[in-house]
Amino acid sequence: MSTRVLIADDHAVxxxxxxxxxxxxxxxxxxxEACNGLDAVQMARHLQPDVVLMDLLMPExxxxxxxxxxxxxxxxxxxxxxxxxxEDSSVVGAIRAGAVGYLLKDTEADELIExxxxxxxxxxxxxxxxxxxxxxxxxxxxxxEALTERETEVLRLLAxxxxxxxxxxxxxxxxxTVKTHVSSILSxxxxxxxxxxxxxxxxxxxxDSL
Length: 210
What we know:
The protein is built from 10 helices and 6 strands; from the N terminus they run βαβαβαβαβαβααααα. The chain is α/β, with parallel strands linked by helices. The protein has 2 domains: 3-137, Rossmann fold (3-Layer(aba) Sandwich); 149-203, Winged helix-like DNA-binding domain superfamily/Winged helix DNA-binding domain (Arc Repressor Mutant, subunit A, Orthogonal Bundle), CATH 1.10.10. The protein has a 6-stranded parallel sheet with strand order 2-1-3-4-5-6, with helices on both faces. It is globular.
């Protein structure tokens, strides 16, 4: 089954370029293009993509606000921030809003395609530069609720880059059960994305690094 992608960028040339090379991969289907954050949210409601490629600097509504709204309204849809800026505020803002990945527009096509597929599987994917900044800037959740032993096992595997399917196989539980555990982890840690949960796991020493 192909991964359904919505491209959100205010530059038509960028959207066309992304559509062109993403369509070369038989496992990816570009289902729509949005020219601003407001359009992205409205189109995502209608099209129900698996992944949204979200530019951060757009008119009407910027990508950070659009990401936050999508994560609140449509938590099954994963967002990858795809931008030309690597400012701390942008990286941290996008991840706090709930983006599962953060890539720069100079990313190689192969890496972008792999990041889209990883996001659809629920895997965290950050450019190395973004990961380094996040480790510096993202604060730990304040007084998070205690995780159960099973939730801690799920978080450890999630932070190691495992997909829901891989976590399910590793722990000998159903994929739906993994999704339930992940939702509970995000709720208890009071974070919006798997990426933030993974950063928390690194900070508390559950895993060495992302």
